[in-house]
Amino acid sequence: MAMNVSDRLESSRVMLLLFGLSMLLSGSSLSAENDGKWRELFDGKTLVDWNVTNFGGEGRVEVEAGRIVLGFGSDLTGITWKGEIPRVDYEVKLEARREGGSDFFCGLTFPVNESFCSLILGGWGGTVVGLSSIDGMDASENETSQAMNFDLNKWYGVNLKVTQQKIEVWVDGTKIIDQLLAGHKIGIRPEVDLSCPFGIASWRTRAGLRRISLRRIHVRP
After folding, report:
1. CA torsion sign, 119 to 53 to 99 to 90?
2. Which residues, in sequence order, are bridge partners of residue 171?
3. Whole-number Å distance between alpha carbons of 217 and 221
4. What are phi and psi of 144, to 5 degrees?
5. Which of 220, 219, 209 is nearest to 94 (CA)?
6. What is the helix (H) or strand (E) element at residue 112, kind and residue range?
7. Element (H, E) at 50
8. Pairing, β 166-171 against β 199-203
9. CB-based burial, 36-58: b 16+ in 10 Å, e otherwise
10. Residue 221: its pLDDT value, please?
11. Helix, strand, or coil here: 21?
């Protein structure tokens, strides 16, 4: 029996409602799947998702024994992520070690809203840790600057958290940086422009990197 106009309209409304509900449930499922889930950025075998950063004078970059090796450069050697990266409300974790040399073995450049910043581990002769740059001052000068000793060939766990409010950093589970963003200008040194939006570099130092991963987070206001 043919449906009248009223029946057809009602049927259409029901179909649209069911479609909208199915999309909502699908989206919720995807959000639940991705929310807080760590995404591996290095598979332990290849550099398929990374570019070797063309600093000029960079050392050899290769994958050996499940780690990325940044060779001695003159001056910088590094890798830059090819894919998309969040600009805020995310966490990064990785392990890094100095395998030779006496300067920074982890210069992690990352987005902070519309700007970028770099976490330096072991710079300025091997012990300086901090963020470059805060209010135009680099990691050896600003309030995040501190000294840490790093043993050769020892792996260090690094965690970075970026929110609308601040940048936080942990090394081997100990918080070392808790930098508020309000009232401060965040930036990078020009030497690492090519590491943007997300990259890791070493300075005249052979470095090892592994277990690099990232996740988005939701921070309550």
Report:
1. positive
2. 158, 174
3. 12
4. -85, -10
5. 209
6. strand 106-112
7. strand 50-52
8. unpaired
9. eeeeebbeeeeeeebebbebeeb
10. 62
11. helix
Residue 125 CA to residue 135 CA, distance in Å, equals 23
* Separation CA 179–CA 38 (nearest Å): 24
Residue 64, both tokens: 């050996």
d(CA 83, CA 51): 10
59 within 8 A of 73, measured Cβ to Cβ: yes
C-alpha distance across the termini of the chain, in Å: 57
Give the integer Cα–Cα distance in Å for 178 and 197. Answer: 22
Cα dist from 179 to 6, 109, 145, 152, 156, whole Å = 62, 16, 11, 28, 21
Cβ atoms of 129 and 145 within 8 Å: the answer is yes
pTM: 0.84
Integer-rounded Cα Rg, in Å, for the chain is 22
* pLDDT mean by block of 10 residues, the chain; 221 residues: 41 38 34 70 97 98 98 98 97 98 98 98 97 97 98 98 98 98 97 98 98 91 62
Closest CA to 167 of 198, 200, 131, 136: 131
Q: What is the pLDDT of residue 145?
A: 98
Inter-residue contact 83 to 72 (CB < 8 Å): no
HSE-up of 115 (CA within 13 Å, CB side)?
19
